[in-house]
Amino acid sequence: MLAGGMSAVFLVLSAFLASAVEMVEALTIVLASGLARGWRSSLVGVAAAVVALAAIVAALGPALTVIPLDTLRLVVGAFLLVFGLQWLRKAILRAAGLKAIHDEEEAFARELAAARAAGQEQHAGIDAYGFTLSFKGVLLEGLEVAFIVITFGSTQGSIPLAAVGAAAALVLVAGVGVAVRAPLARVPENTLKFAVGVMLTTFGIFWSTEGAGGSWPGSDAALFGVLAFVIALSALFVAVLRRRKRERFVTADVRA
Amino acid sequence: MKYVVSFGRFWWDFVVGDDWRAAVGVVLAIGATAALAAGGVAVWWTMPLAVALVLYMTLRRATAP
Question: How many Cβ contacts (< 8 angstroms) between chains A and B?
Answer without folding.
Answer: 97
